[in-house]
Amino acid sequence: MPNSARNIVLEHATEGARLREEFFRDAADQIVEIARLMAVCLARGGKILLAGNGGSAADAQHLAAEFVNRFLMERPPLPAIALTTDSSILTAVGNDYGFDQVFEKQVLALGNPGDVFLAISTSGNSTNLVRALRAAQEKGLTSICLSGKTGGEMAPLCEHKILVPHEHTPLIQEIHIAAGHLLCQLVDYYLFEAVVELTPYLEED
After folding, report:
1. Least enclosed by CB within 10 Å: which of 45, 84, 130, 162?
2. How many CB atoms lie within 10 A of CB 186?
3. Which residues make up each annotated binding site?
């Protein structure tokens, strides 16, 4: 039994390391592009909205905290809101309209054209996120999804996608938070270390 338990650890670590290396090799340019887009949004006075369910809710809150407080460098707070944290809004909307609308209504209330909405779901099939993405389209937000496999129902609604090609939810979530950390680091890089690289994108319509 001890050997079986140890094998669980080693197999998870081995598969996680393989997935991590392959994913970031293939997705590096995509992550850089999305981070640059988020930096442009913030430089223009926009904000980042984030949402997810369960473990993905925790990821949304984690990343929002990194933006508002700091990631690695000392810099001004950056505007990011996790739509998972206001229990009065969540319970009011859930009670009056249903759980499927808890993020949709917040996107409609808080989102402005040019803001970014980051939806996080390992399956890509969370109805409340699908509805929120449709609301983001309606309001003129840029939509990004962190998901697994093909991105599920969310994929057609997202302008930019970070998809982890795996079936195992814990490993997908581990890649999601690593990718999220890189988005935080790269946003800081563009806004506070390499503004010259961002300038051409700020001048675009």
Report:
1. 45
2. 21
3. 53-55, 62, 66, 95-96, 121-123, 126, 173, 181
